[in-house]
Amino acid sequence: MSYILLMDDNNILGVVLAGGQSKRFGLDKSQVILNGKILIDYILSEIHDEFSEILIITNNEIDHMNSKKISKIKDFKKDLGPLGGVLTAMKWVKQFNKNFQWIYTFPTDTPFFKKECLQDFLKKIKFHDSKLFFIKSNNTRHNIFGLWSLKLLDQLEDDLINKGKRKVETWANSIGVKVINIDFEKFDPFFNINTKEDLKIANKILNKND
What we know:
Blueprint: H1 3-8, E1 12-17, E2 33-34, E3 37-38, H2 39-47, E4 54-57, E5 70-73, H3 81-95, E6 102-106, H4 115-124, E7 132-137, E8 140-149, H5 153-162, H6 168-175, E9 178-182, H7 196-209
Parallel strand pairs: 1-4, 1-6, 4-5, 7-9
Antiparallel strand pairs: 2-3, 6-8, 7-8
Helix pairs in contact: 3-5
């Protein structure tokens, strides 16, 4: 099954996981201003035209770019981490009888990610090889940039709710995640903002490129 066929059939739901507590940063990172733009809008503006619908998972009242494509819901159960956000998105698809077979998850703190990375990732995937795929850039695996089959819903719910398996990396490895490596010779666009010092670095990068 090709990337083009999947996208034409609208089989992938774009999901932005904004439910984290941002403890290291000290406040909701999704709302931080970077070069005059709130952080969540960097990822939303890149992926907006790549999906027929985008779902934001957040437990806070947050601002974001206005679009009829974008829906916003809370975690069905708090404090379950990123896997809880993934499960929430899958449950939303089932609850509203959406036609999505996969969800693609994104964080809110990677302002340099470009849609070309997404397109390259999807083109390299053989969809029958696994039910879960992650991006790896320059030998670093990014566990939030993932393509998840809706067929994982029941197992994820059992492992997360009944067995308490909450670490994304450990759970993904147990599933048999496939990793797609993308190398970047110059700047790695997966730079993420965890601290206020990271925000300063990101501002310098943006101002340098202006």
